[in-house]
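Q: Could you fold this chain for me?
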Amino acid sequence: MENSTAPFKKKHTPSQARPKIEKYCAYQERSHLQVKRKLAGLGLHTSDADLLLVELMQNNFLNETRFAMAYARGKFNIKHWGRLKIKQGLKREGIGGRLIQEALASLRLAEYQKTLHALAQKKWPFIKAASHREKVAKLQRFLLGKGYEYDAIDCVVKEVISTTKIR
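A: Sure. Below is the predicted structure, expressed as structure tokens.
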């Protein structure tokens, strides 16, 4: 038997949605796309959502530059993502090319290379493979999956192999 009291999504007025969305934006940096999705989820009409977005930007609750910088810094420092994966994530969030370039430029090259080297060094002893070539390929795939550039990976893998005992 069908449940006639199935829950319906509550529609909010702009004045009801404002404090909720301000709290949502104050908790952590958000992209415009994330906020638009949240406003749509609150049942706000598109024109009301656009007006609320403008208010959020004017009151500094929403800032794409700040979001892009925080996203790049967080994904690199916490998840150890490479530039390619960060760039892909920012594009998915609807961030423009100029802001993506700024965010990626904010990552220090020395830290970037140090992190890549540390990831490779840490992963190498745990890779199980029948041959040395297969082991190298698995390490390269792992680092490519993390979003690092192939040229950088190639150099680091050669370093790791030369500094560790070959299997």
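A (continued): Residues 63-107 form a domain with the Arc Repressor Mutant, subunit A fold (CATH 1.10.10.10).
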